[in-house]
Amino acid sequence: MRKGALYFLLVLAIISAIVLYFFRDRRIEAYIERTASDSNGGKVEIDNLHFSVFNLTFKFDRIQWTDPSDRWRNLFETGPVEFSVEATPLFWKKFIIREMKVAGVMAGTKRATDGYWPKAPEEPGLFDEVMESVEKEVRALPVFNLDALKQKANLDSLLNVDQLQAALSAKALRADIDSTGGHWEQFLKTYDAKQKIADLESQVKAISVADVKDLNGFVNTLQKVKDLRASAVTLQNEVATTKKRAGGDFSRLTGAVKNLDNLVKEDIEAAKKKIGLADFDFKNIGKLLFGNPFQDRFQGVMKYVDFGRRYLPTAQKLMAVNKVESPPRFKGQDISFPRTFAYPKFLIRDLHLSAAVGSAVSRNDLAEALQISGEASGITTEPPVYGKPTAFDVEIFKQNSNAYAVRGVLDHTGEIPADTLRLSAANFRMGKIDLKQNKSYLPSQLDGQRGTVNALLALRGDQLRASIELMVDQLNFVFADSAASSDRITQAIRSVFSSVQDFRFSATAAGPTEDLKFHISSNLDENFAQRMRGVIQENLQRAQQELRQRIDKEVAAPRKEVESLLAAKQAMVMNEVNKYEKAVQDQLAVIDAKKQEIEKKIEAEKKKGEQKLKKGLEKLLKP
Amino acid sequence: MFFLQFISKFIKVLRAGATPGQIAGGFMLGFMIGLMPFMTLQGAVLMIVLFFLNVNLSAATFAIFASSFVAFLFDPLLHDLGFLVLTKPSLQNTWTNLYNMPVAPLSRFNNTVVLGSFVAGIILALPVFLLARKGVISYRSGLEKRIKKWKVVRWITGSKIATWYFKIRDMGE
C-alpha cells in the first residue's frame, strides 16, 4: 500500500479540475461540434460557448448547422441560445434541458467557410421511399403535346420505325417460319413412312387368295392378313401423330401472324403516348399544371418529417439489438436495456423559438423572410422513454404580411410512429408560384392575390395522408412568352387561362409511402372541358389517324411476306403428310377387302365340310 | 526519449529491484487497463488501485502500452465477446438493474467493446499474473544468460540498435 499515492492523486485531481475549469468552454464546444457534425454529416459550428458549472447553464452566441447536401449553405443558424441542464440525470449520463431559448433562427443562410464533414453512408429512409413514390406519380402525369397538333407532324422523325414491336415481331416470325418449315422439310426427307408404306403394299400384293386351296391355307392366310392390318394401323397412327405435330407447329405460327394486329395496336398506343397524342382528359389539366409544384412543396415538408423519423426513434428501433458486425475499432456497439427511470439520453423539455426562413436570408434583411415564432416541447432522442410526444405550435409570418399557423405532433412513443402536421392561413398573399412548364401554350407562373389555405399531413407507420386546399382570388396566369400567338389552339388555351379569376385547388396524396396515389383537382378542369373540347378534339383525332396509317403502312409489307411464306411452307408439308395418310388408308382398305374375302372363303369351306359330314353320316345311319 | 528511458527502466526492473510479485501485479493491472478503451470509469478505478497498491509502475506502464496494441488487434473478438455477454438472456436482469442505477451508465458497460475487454481482462488477469511472475523469476535465475547466447541476440547486440540500447541502459545508471 502506497500512502503517498493518496497525495499524488489529490494533487492530480486538483490540477485536472483547475485545467478542466479554465478550458471547459472550449472542450465542451469542441465535443458538441464534433458529435453534432458526425450526426449531421455536415460541419456544425458553435460560437463563444460558455458553461456555468454552478447553475449548469449553457449559453452561446450562434450555432451554424451545415446543410449536408450543400456545404456552402446552412440548414439553419441561430442567434443567441441559452439553456440550463438538470443535475440529477447527469448521474445516469442523460442530458435533460429544462428550458431552451433560441432566438434569431434563420434557414438557408450562406456559409463563409466550407461546411464539409465526412458523412457516414445513410440507408434510404422514409423520405427516399416517399419521394420515389411521388416521382413515379409525377412521371405518370399526362404528357400532352400540342405541337403535334398545331402542324403536320413529321412522323418519321418522331417515330422510330425500327423499334415498332409489330415490325420486329414480323422479322422474328419470318425466321421462325423458315426454321420450322426447314425442320419439317428435313424431317420428311428422312421420314421412313414412305418405305414402310411400300413394304406394306408389296406384302399385301403378295397375298393371293385365289392360290389358296384348303381350309388350313385360308386360316393361315387370314392370320397373315390380320398381322398386316395391325402393322398398317400402327403406321396410320404414326402418320396421324406426325400430321398433328406439323399441324400444331403451323397453327402456332398462324396465331403469331394474327397477333401482329394486336402488336400494331400496342405500337399505335405507345407512339401516341411518346409523341404526346394520348387521348386527353380535360380533367387532367389541374394535374398537368400543378403536379410539379405540388411535388416540390411536398418534398420540402417530407424532408422535415423524415428528419423526425430518423432522430426520434420508436421503442422498436430503440430496443433493437441487431448486431453490428464490424464497428470501427474501439467504438463497439451500445446495447440498450429497458428503463425504469424517465430520463431519455437527450431531452429539451421546452423550447422557445424565433426564426426566419427564406432563400439567401440575411440578418439585415428580414422584410422578405418568413419569420417563425413559437414553442415546442418534448424534443428527445428517445420518445418511448420520455413517454410524451414532441409537439410544436408556431406562427410563421412575413413582416406586414401573411401569417400561417403550424401545429404538429410527432408521437413516437409507441411501436408505430404517428406524425401530424397542420398548416392554415387566412387572407394570405399568395405571390408567384413557378409551375415549371416550358410549353408556350401553358402558363409558367401563377400570380395570385389573397387566399386561404388549409393543409394536413398525417403519417401513421407507413400510411400517409396529405391534403391541401387552396382558394385564391384575383388570379393571374403568367406565360413565359408574353407575345400573342397566331396559332388558333394556343390562343384558345390562353384565353381559357385568362378568363379564370378565382382559383379553387385541392390535392391529396394517400396510401402506403411506397405507393402513394395523387388526386389533384381545380376549377380549371371544368373550364377547359367546356371550352377546349371542340378545338382540340378534331385536331387530335386527325393526328391519331395519321399515326395509325403510318404504322399500318410500316408493318403491312413484312406482314404480307410472312403470311405468304407461312402458307407456302404449310401447304408443302401438310400435302406431303396427307399423301402418306392417304396411302396408308388405301392399303388398309385393300387389307380389309382381302380379309373379308378370306373370311368368306373360310365360311364357304366350313359349309362345304359340314355338308360332306352330313352326307357321310346319313350314308352311315341308313338301315 | 521518455519512451527509451522507460524501456531501460523496465529492463532494469526485470533484472533486480522489485519482487517478482510486484512486477507481475503491476503488469497484470496495466494489462487490464490497456485492454479497455481509454476514458472509462472502471479504467479510472483500476488506475487508482494501481497507484495505491505497492506494485511496480514501470511494469504497469509497459503492460498498458503492450495490451493497448493487443486490444487493437483483437478488437473484433472483444466486440463479439461483449455482445455475447450483454445479450445473454440469463444476465438481462443484471444489466437492466445496472443500466438503471446512477453512475453505472458512466462506465459505458453497455458498450460491447468496453464490456468485452473488461471481461477478457478479468478472465486473463490471473494467468497473466502467474505467467509474468514466472517470467521474471526465470529471467533472473539464468534465462538472461541463455538468451544472451542466442545467435539472434548476439547478432542484435552487435548492431547499431544494440549500441543505442546500451546507451539507454547507461542513462538510467
Summed up:
Chain A is built from 12 helices and 17 strands. With 623 residues, chain A is an alpha+beta fold. Chain A starts with a helix and ends with a helix.
Fold topology:
The complex is a heterodimer of chains A (623) and B (173).
Chain A: H1 4-40, E1 44-47, E2 50-52, E3 57-60, E4 62-67, E5 70-77, E6 81-85, E7 95-107, H2 126-139, H3 147-150, H4 155-158, H5 165-189, H6 193-206, H7 215-275, H8 285-311, H9 315-318, E8 346-357, E9 370-380, H10 383-386, E10 390-397, E11 403-411, E12 418-434, E13 445-460, E14 463-472, E15 476-478, H11 488-499, E16 503-512, E17 517-522, H12 523-621
Parallel strand pairs in A: 7-8
Antiparallel strand pairs in A: 1-4, 2-3, 3-6, 4-5, 5-7, 6-7, 8-9, 9-10, 10-11, 11-12, 12-13, 13-14, 13-15, 14-16, 16-17
Chain B: H1 2-15, H2 20-35, H3 41-52, H4 57-73, H5 75-86, H6 92-99, H7 112-149, H8 151-157, H9 160-171
Helix pairs in contact in B: 1-9, 2-3, 2-4, 2-7, 5-7
Can you walk through the features of this model?
The complex is a heterodimer of chains A (623) and B (173). Chain A is 49% helix and 23% strand. By secondary structure, chain A is α+β, with helices and mostly antiparallel strands. Chain A has a 17-stranded mixed sheet that branches. In chain A, strand 11 and strand 12 (418-434) form a beta hairpin. In chain A, helix 5 runs antiparallel to helix 7 (215-275) and helix 5 runs parallel beside helix 12. The radius of gyration of chain A is 45 Å and the shape is elongated. The mean pLDDT of chain A is 80. The radius of gyration of chain B is 19 Å and the shape is elongated. In chain B, helix 1 packs across helix 9. Chain B has 173 residues and is mainly α. Chain B has one domain (2-166). Chain B has helices spanning 2-15, 20-35, 41-52, 57-73, 75-86, 92-99, 112-149, 151-157, 160-171. Classes of the chains: A alpha+beta (623), B mainly alpha (173). Chains A and B meet through helix 1 of A and helix 3, helix 5, helix 6 and helix 7 of B.
